[in-house]
Amino acid sequence: MNLHDHPGYVGTRTLMLALFGPSGTPPAWRADAACAGEDTELFFVPTTTAEALDVCAGCPVIAQCRADQVDWENRTRSRRFYASGVVGGTTGSERNQTYYPRTTTRKEVA
Ligand code: SF4
Question: Locations of Polar residues compositional bias (predicted)?
Answer without folding.
Answer: 92-103
